[in-house]
Amino acid sequence: MSVTKNLTAVKKNITTDKNEDKFNRKGRKTVKEIVKEIMIEKLLFFCAFVSLLSLILITVYILIKGTPIIFKIGFFNFVFGRDWNPTPANGDASFGILPMVAASLLATLGSVFAGTLIGIFTAIFLSEIAPVVIVKLFKPAIELLAGIPSVVYGFFGLVVIVPLIRTHLAPPGNSLLAAIIILTFMILPTIINISETAIRTVPVEYREGSLALGATHIQTIFRVILPAARSGIMASIVLGMGRAIGETMAVILVAGNSTLMPKSLLSPVRTLTANIALEMGYAFGEHENALFATGVILFLFIMALNIIFNVLVSKTGKTGCKTGKINKVIKESK
To answer: For residue 122, how many other CB atoms are within 10 A of its CB?
Structure first.
């Protein structure tokens, strides 16, 4: 009897050793696999290093070229000066960018206001109300809007929107209002896509709980779902704002490019980005440095927006919502 038990124990040990050897052979990495992993890690590190180095070089170069003239003119004289005349026929050049700062802020805020209203309501319709057939029809159209080049938006505004404003409101048509309309079209895909994803990630228990308490579908949307998705919606607005303030080509075509202070929505204006793009081709000396200084001010605007964006994304994570899809869409839209 004891011999039989010993034989059974020996067979069991042999089987266990075979299984461990098989597992080790399967789990053990070959030299080729280890080298391959190391090379991929080095390549990823190199790509990250190149990206960071590019950012540092661009930032340092803009600061070196732009900050000396800001110190020479004075920060407040440069930012709050109303006269931009870098190549006067006689007398000293003047570098005041307040009209461009005002135009950039007004165009951005106006387009974000209109784009937020249209975008959030569209996102609500697609995520909560529209049938699947309608969603399948609208979604590709919205994604197509995001892929249209900005010059096409600008050309559309030049041949359609500008003549409409000139005919029905007041000449010349190239105006702050035309810039706001075009920028609204351009930021809609960003706001709609991210807001829709944020609304869809609200837990279904919220809807069921609200409906179980007697609330209507519309009350549930505006009093439960939207507050729960507010962090993602805010992130979409900030990203839309970032695109609006950085847009150049479309704004150049429709805004009129006047360096005077805007007095109404129908006044021709010039934004900060348009100012750089229009004059960099022939600028030199202090004029060129002043354009780089304009880039420094624009850089500060964008940095402030990025800080706001990061704060909102961190708050999105703290709300307990499912942020994976939101962050994916945010990364795709950047």
So the answer is: 18
